[in-house]
Specification:
Layout: H1 17-33, H2 38-45, H3 58-70, H4 73-85, H5 105-118, H6 134-147, H7 151-164, H8 169-178, H9 184-205
Helix pairs in contact: 1-6, 2-3, 3-9, 6-7, 8-9
């Protein structure tokens, strides 16, 4: 398991709840790792029951599905590069440490590497991205959820989410919504924001 993910083959998540949570993290990890291909857009746009009717994710998911139906795969892939890669400096940086209040990215990365090691995770030699890439953080959460349930597992999820995702995702998602180059990814950012708000509230009461 690497903290920096490779593109995942996304499959619509099923119940129970933890499987759905892991599926959403897998989807977000894939979308923030690289631009979507036609197969991924079709999976998002499909009729699968991704969220419960009337739930807090229903609206953001419907908007994301509509954007996926309207998106051209090549254009969406190019959009990812323009927003998150860019030439020189990306319009929206995908590295969580840039959105954390603490001073010094290296300090955050050192702690993150230590936390990953304590979880038995780490960056592979083939990985090009630093460990604080949001796709990697979402993949870690997917792994922690899939690893098992119970108080110990939830404590690991809560601690990792609190340290690296909860304090960084609002500014990250806001930056996406403000991007002049984002179109499809505005819907991705809006769904990510809605899902992570639900996660933040849910992990506090577990």
């Amino acid at each position: 398991m690497s903290a920096t993910v490779t593109p995942l083959d996304f499959q619509p998540p099923e119940v129970p709840e933890d499987r759905a949570r892991a599926g959403y993290y897998a989807l977000l990890a894939r979308l923030f790792y690289a631009g979507p291909d036609a197969q991924l857009l079709e999976a998002i746009a499909g009729p699968g029951e991704m969220v419960a009717d009337g739930g807090p994710l229903a609206g953001p998911w419907a908007a994301l599905a509509a954007s996926a139906r309207a998106a051209n795969p090549e254009s969406a892939h190019l959009e990812y590069d323009e927003v998150f890669v860019g030439t020189g400096k990306a319009e929206v940086t995908p590295y969580a440490s840039n959105y954390l209040a603490e001073t010094g990215r290296e300090k955050i990365l050192v702690r993150l590497r230590q936390d990953l090691a304590s979880l038995g995770l780490g960056r592979t030699e083939a990985a090009l991205e630093p460990e604080d890439h949001v796709a990697g953080l979402f993949e870690v959460m997917r792994h922690l959820i899939s690893e098992g349930s119970g108080d110990v597992a939830l404590q690991k999820q809560r601690q990792f989410f609190s340290r690296y995702i909860e304090s960084s995702f609002p500014r990250f998602c806001t930056a996406i919504s403000a991007s002049s180059k984002a179109d499809f990814y505005k819907s991705v950012g809006a769904f990510a924001q809605a899902f992570l708000v639900v996660e933040s509230e849910g992990l506090k009461v577990f």
